[in-house]
Amino acid sequence: MFLKQTEEEMMKVLVVDDSEKMRGIIKMYLNGFADEIIECEDGAEAIALYEKTLPDIVCMDIVMKRLDGISATQRIIKMHPDACIIIVSQYDDMSFRESARRAGAYGYVLKDNLSALLQLMNAPNRMAHNYKGVEK
What we know:
Layout: E1 11-16, H1 20-30, E2 34-40, H2 43-53, E3 57-60, H3 69-79, E4 85-89, H4 94-103, E5 107-110, H5 115-122, E6 134-135
Parallel strand pairs: 1-2, 1-3, 3-4, 4-5, 5-6
């Protein structure tokens, strides 16, 4: 499914989702792409883990219990403007997409199309932080 990156291209990814099953599925997609995958189940934990681990990319769900992914994205971006956060959501909703863009997310992909996540993560201009919107 995905070709293994060279060691120089390997990276650290933070996966934030309230569903343990979904975190596992995302981790399967990232196998061979990330040499370290950190995971947590809500936005508040994501902020603390981001500060502690400084991942290269964050895969952030939107709807979570203590702190939603849009609010967590805003806070992380405020502290780390170069943070690369990709919203990974089940909601194909224009208001969520716009909120993600305004919060500073790099992109927005749907959970039923995780191959788009890898495409965004592999984009040569990923670090330019040009918002990519929804990938279908």
